[in-house]
């Protein structure tokens, strides 16, 4: 049956406004209708009374969203400093920001945002000394600034640029092509792509695409049978040539890339977010087949470049921290590989070539170290960074004389450096001017013990002269998954918290990539609880060292980090005062049934498997909310166009929390429109952050002095 939602407001909690010393009006939540839905998992009966909220297109769901937002925004509007906080965030975000330039023949491209533009504008110029001209301005493409543009790369003759175009934050994109000199769009339109590049060859490119989804199911239907096509410029999409498909494995990703000399095309195959298999094809031979290069799927490998008829490959096969090998594709067996750069104690983060050299970045305790090597692996030099932090870039073409890289840290705005490949000299190319004084703050890295005595690093940022008396508000955030490393980066919006005396803390949990594949695997599948234990231990460290107290501690995380927040707040609700789960994976029994959720099975497991079901049900946030427990003040956030972690996760989580939670803390959901897995434009990002920060500060009893 289809559920009917009753918009009768029921008294669910009596809210005491922090610091005001008097009772406020009772908090009221919309009554969310239940349905009689029970699933059988290997004999375990699991109720799913809010299953109807998975239908994002129904009138009932739309009415529920409207009712929830009315309650949430009514609450937020009563926070006295909310508007002043938003003004401060807007002010500090309003500074020019640039991307590193990249070269395409005689042309240089870069992105620039004047400060508060909803989307960055792409510019092109002839040479580094040329006059920049607008190449494409995404802000002119929609009234609300929610159309995003990405540059996918230039054609081999440098006449054309492939671009991706996405709307309202959805992962779906359309590939288009622009003439560089004339800055004009060609009529080519390639629709229904996700996570695809454009790998140029001759007068066209390879790309990855899906079949058109059913009408009305574009944002929720499971994405299956990705294929690789070749598109020739000027042809309609219906003429594109199918290059590769696998009818036996609907749940695999396929991505194509070509070598710079366009002699080879490489096919990367994966069954999810980790684990790859590599194939290659000789494009000089007509009808040549794809041939296996590196067998999958227990490790990750990727082609860096070809050196003549051999391939440089980055891999963690038999090297959890990563290494670089040279493979003769005609003798691709592992025994024939030549090790170019062996595994090191530090984790190999990225590797790329430019100017006939090999550039590698490594992580040492989540800080970047960068090195230049010859293509034979002989060391040339270390590229010394200005401080502890994060660096990236270094890519380019074989005839480049210079490359660009960026460096950033928590109080070091992202700065672009120009690097001379021959001499090794670095000079500042662009440095932003941000309205804050970095000398007022300090960053430290500490190490603490998790539940099983594992040593875990954590960055802590705060005002200088901080009193360690347990009275400071603390904003604790982490990710802990998918081999993603949480390294220092500059977020101007964070300054608005730091300048109010808030302690910012970010631990490097297991499940991430900070210490290689061993660290990753220690926080995935049946070991996922290690991630939650690491985060809980971080909170206990901050309290024990008197940076903060439970009454002042807020936790935040997005996506897999939203799962983290949902899990720890249900496991240790008394430890935190505020929880901010953003676009979280909250239903661990059904995540794989929507869009690309199947790709996370390699990380989490699947409830379709009895063994996996046991550990998933043990920590699934939705299924571990207990009746009558006082949970932290919670503001869940999601968006109507999130087709990566569908909003039903947050919808069902908050409905259950509102029904079972006991106590004065508000438990609310903020649902953005025309946005996706992350804010779709700058104005929405500032508005959402302002509400999250305001909710956090208000509920820890802070008295900020924004002007």
Spatial gap, N to C terminus: 52 Å
- Average the pLDDT over all residues and give the rounded result: 95
> Which structural class do you get from the secondary structure elements?
alpha+beta
* The top level CATH class name of the domain at 67-91 and 437-699: Alpha Beta
Major sheet characteristics: 8 strands, mixed
The poorly predicted ranges are 1-24
The Cα radius of gyration reads 26 Å
Strand content: 25-35%
> How much helicity do the residues have?
10-25%
Overview of the molecule:
- The chain is an alpha+beta fold.
- About 15% of the residues lie in helices and about 35% in strands.
- The protein has a domain at about 65-90 and about 435-700: Rossmann fold (3-Layer(aba) Sandwich), CATH 3.40.50.
- It has an 8-stranded mixed β-sheet with strand order 35-36-38-37-39-40-41-42, sandwiched between helices. Strands 5, 6, 7, 8 and 9 form a 5-stranded antiparallel β-sheet that branches.
- The relative contact order is 0.11.
């Amino acid at each position: 049956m289809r559920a009917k939602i009753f918009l009768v407001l029921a008294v669910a909690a009596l809210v005491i406004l922090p610091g005001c010393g008097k009772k406020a009006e009772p908090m009221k939540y919309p009554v969310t209708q239940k349905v009689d839905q029970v699933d059988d998992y290997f004999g375990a009966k699991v109720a799913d009374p809010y299953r109807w909220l998975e239908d994002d297109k129904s009138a009932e769901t739309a009415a529920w969203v409207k009712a929830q937002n009315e309650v949430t925004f009514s609450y937020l509007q009563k926070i006295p400093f909310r508007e002043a906080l938003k003004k401060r965030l807007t002010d500090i975000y309003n500074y020019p920001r640039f991307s590193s330039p990249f070269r395409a023949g005689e042309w240089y491209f870069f992105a620039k945002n004047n400060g508060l533009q909803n989307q960055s504008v792409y510019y092109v110029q002839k040479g580094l000394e040329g006059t920049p001209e607008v190449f494409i301005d995404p802000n002119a493409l929609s009234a609300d600034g929610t159309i995003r543009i990405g540059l996918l790369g230039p054609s081999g003759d440098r006449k054309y640029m492939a671009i991706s175009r996405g709307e309202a934050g959805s992962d779906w994109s359309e590939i288009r092509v622009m003439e560089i000199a004339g800055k004009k769009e060609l009529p080519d339109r390639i629709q229904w792509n996700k996570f695809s590049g454009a790998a140029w060859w001759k007068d066209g490119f390879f790309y990855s695409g899906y079949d058109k989804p059913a009408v009305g199911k574009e944002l929720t239907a499971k994405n299956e049978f990705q294929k690789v096509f070749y598109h020739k410029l000027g042809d309609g999409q219906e003429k594109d040539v199918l290059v590769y498909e696998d009818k036996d494995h609907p749940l695999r990703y396929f991505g194509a890339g070509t070598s710079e000399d366009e002699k080879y095309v490489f096919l990367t195959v994966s069954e999810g977010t980790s684990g790859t298999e590599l194939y290659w094809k000789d494009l000089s031979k007509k009808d040549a087949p794809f041939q296996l290069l590196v067998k999958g799927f227990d490790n990750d490998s990727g082609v860096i470049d070809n050196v003549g008829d051999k391939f440089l490959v980055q891999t963690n096969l038999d090297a959890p921290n990563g290494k670089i090998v040279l493979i003769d594709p005609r003798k691709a067996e592992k025994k024939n590989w030549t090790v170019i750069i062996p595994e090191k104690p530090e984790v190999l983060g990225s590797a790329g070539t430019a100017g006939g050299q090999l550039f590698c970045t490594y992580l040492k305790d989540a800080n970047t170290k960068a090195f230049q090597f010859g293509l034979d692996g002989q060391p040339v030099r270390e590229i010394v960074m200005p401080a502890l932090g994060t660096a990236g870039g270094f890519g380019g073409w074989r005839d480049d004389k210079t490359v660009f890289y960026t460096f950033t840290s928590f109080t070091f705005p992202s700065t672009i450096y120009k690097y001379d490949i021959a001499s090794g000299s670095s000079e500042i190319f662009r440095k932003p001017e941000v309205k804050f004084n970095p000398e007022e703050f300090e960053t430290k890295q500490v190490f603490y013990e998790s539940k099983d005595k594992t040593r875990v690093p954590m960055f802590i940022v705060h005002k200088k002269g901080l009193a360690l008396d347990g009275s400071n508000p603390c904003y604790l955030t982490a990710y802990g998954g998918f081999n993603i490393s949480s390294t220092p980066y500059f977020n101007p919006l964070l300054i608005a918290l730091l300048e109010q005396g808030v302690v910012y803390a970010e631990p490097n949990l297991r499940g991430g990539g900070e210490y290689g594949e061993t660290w990753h695997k220690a926080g995935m599948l049946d070991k996922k609880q290690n991630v939650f234990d690491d985060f809980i231990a971080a909170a206990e460290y901050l309290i024990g060292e008197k940076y903060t107290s439970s009454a002042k501690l807020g936790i935040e995380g997005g996506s897999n980090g939203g799962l983290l927040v949902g899990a720890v707040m249900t496991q240790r609700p008394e430890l935190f005062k505020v929880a901010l789960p953003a676009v979280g994976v909250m239903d661990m029994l059904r995540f794989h049934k929507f869009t690309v959720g199947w790709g996370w099975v390699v990380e989490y497991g699947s409830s379709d498997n009895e063994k996996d079901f046991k550990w998933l049900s043990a920590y699934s946030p939705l299924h571990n909310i207990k009746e009558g427990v006082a949970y932290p003040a919670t503001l869940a956030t999601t968006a109507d166009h999130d087709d990566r972690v569908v909003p039903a996760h947050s919808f069902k989580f908050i409905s259950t929390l509102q029904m079972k939670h006991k106590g004065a803390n508000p438990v609310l959901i903020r649902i953005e429109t025309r946005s996706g897995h992350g804010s779709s434009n700058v104005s929405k990002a500032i508005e959402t952050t302002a509400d999250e920060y305001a909710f956090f500060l208000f509920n820890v009893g802070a008295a900020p002095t924004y002007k």
